[in-house]
Amino acid sequence: MILETKEICNRLRDDIVALAGRKSPLLCCVGFSEDGSTLSYFRSIERAANKTKIRVRKEILKDISVHDTVSFMETLNRDGDINGIVISRPIPLPLQKAGIKNIIDPAKDVDCITDENLGGLITGNVLYTPPTPGAVMEIIKEFNIETTGRNVVVLGRSDVVGKPLALLLLRKGVDATVTVCHSKTRYLISLTRTADILITAVGRPQFLKCNMVKPGTIVIDVGINVKDGRVVGDVDFEDVKRVAGMITPTPGGVGPVTTHILLLNVAKAAKRKAD
Ligand SMILES: NC(=O)c1ccc[n+]([C@@H]2O[C@H](COP(=O)([O-])OP(=O)(O)OC[C@H]3O[C@@H](n4cnc5c(N)ncnc54)[C@H](OP(=O)(O)O)[C@@H]3O)[C@@H](O)[C@H]2O)c1
Question: Pick from 28, 111, 145, 205: most CB atoms within 10 A?
Answer without folding.
Answer: 111
